[in-house]
Amino acid sequence: MVIIKRKELSLAERLYLPEIVRGLTVTFSKFFQKPITRQYPEEPLPTNEVTRGQPRLVVKDDGNIACVSCGMCEAACPAYAITIDGGETDRAIEREPKRFDIDMLRCILCGFCEEACPKDAIYMSDELELADYSRAALVYDMEKLKRPASALRKRMDYVNHINDRWRT
Amino acid sequence: MTKITVNGREIDADPKKPLIAACHSNHVEVPHYCYHPGLEPVGSCRICQVEVQQGTGPARVMVACRTFPAEGMVVQTESTKAHDTRRECLEFLLKNHPLDCPICDKAGECDLQDYTYSEGQGEGRTHEPRRKLEKRKSLGDVIVLDEERCILCSRCVRFFEEVTKKPQLTVADLGSRSTIATFADRPLTGNYQGNIADLCPVGALTLSKFRFQARVWNLVKMASTCAECSRGCSTTVEVLRGGEVKRFRPRENAEVNKWWLCDTGRFAFGPVNAKPRLDGSHNRASLAQLCNLLAQDAGALIVASPFCTQEEGAALLEFVRERGAKALFLSPAPNALKDDLLHTGDPCPNRRGLTELGFAPLAPSEIGSPRTLVLVGERSAELAGAALAMAQRVALFDTQASSAPNVALCIGVATHVEKSGTWINVDGKKGVLGAAKPPPNAVRPLPNLLTELAALLRAQPAPR
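YS: structure for the whole thing
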């Protein structure tokens, strides 16, 4: 059995009122400070290039999707969230995805897909919100995943910068 | 047999076969691109170099595919010298090889990729641009050539020279501009073109029907047997995500098809992928209905499909014998695809097996117009053809429903890629079937259905 000795109170503490005043000083001083509570969802969370949100597909400046459906992200995905079916195109790069699904309910936002991609085609965006009325609606298809390269530019630069540190 | 020493281990080698064959049969890995056990070795890729020492001479680096075992030969496959030489060869092979593994269909089963991962250096040392050649050159309906990826191993050229004996390809032009080309740019012909896509050690020759269809590591592979003729070539069925069959590839079998497969068999995934499939949801009602039909007509004609396995055949034989009927299987006329390499022209994959069990062949024209016709097994309606319409009532065990007006009932069965079993080919060799994917909802094995039907019939009161 452990006996915990009660703390000896000082005279000021035993007088009760001074301690009440001290506590209320802290409370009232906060009235004059900037509030730290965030009014989510009216007020969105701050994001930056380090934010690892949901994966999104890059649409290059020429309007074509950067993905060549090589299946590296699909293979790297630890949650089996990605399903890709490839197909042929007439462009110089002969291959493109015909179907690119990410099951956002399976996605654990680990960023392995971003790391695995040899074509800089999938990046973790700063989009974090995920809510809908059905599970099927949360399996995102290619149209829902496409983002222009400009929207992902900051993240792309950041990831390239990180990768450069390991380059010999 | 000759005694040689490979990596310090003494092995018996066949002096008529190249050194690389002796290494491979003793589980010593020697990389190779141009060498193929089914083709004459030419030693053009130089990647199989090993250190060979003979008698009192110095150790030399030699290509294992063009060196033949001699008594007392000492071979080092993993010595520094052999490794360095192979690495240099690899660097030259990769000099002009495009870096498009993410796009290339061969990625994942590419010999060049595998060896580059295990042995190659991380970065190239050349700064010159890689050569630019045609990326998609059609060589007929079956094959698409990517000239940039080609490492000029000439396996495809030798295949047409040595196996089909009808040379169709050649190495055109000189030096770094060399490419694989057909004579006078004519498209490839023949029923064996698909084999060169399998032979190609890189992704230069691709099948137009498989291009960009699937990543090879996503394909579930299962040993099977080709259903397109009575040769029964050993194949591997490759299924994407448990759904569609994407490829049939030859599986090495020295007694039947060696390493080859004809295009008819290779691209025969139409019937096994056909939709809509007949599922087993009405099995109970259909079996009861069939039981009534059979009880009313003691002379019902029961005909097996030549696609029935030995196991299904045995179950059907028991059922038919119990009824005192004749055991018959559908035997359509031979088709015109017969050639002198593999295709027998006989569309019945298990003709020999069913005959050995005691079934007699029945041509569709001999069916006549029975009161009740029961067709049992995959593709039976298709093989019966016009004869189906002659019968008054037809009960069908098939993979797809028939809309013919006289078909009284259909019961779903599995295709040959959805069940395991045995076929016996024209030469009496056994061919295995493996279940590469699950059959549609509630489809049950044919023997189980027949057992249930027999039990139902026994419970039926005797016909008046």
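YS: worth flagging: Residues 52 and 124 of chain A are 5 Å apart (CA to CA).
IM: good catch. Also The helical segments of chain A are 11-14, 17-30, 72-76, 112-116, 142-145, 149-166.
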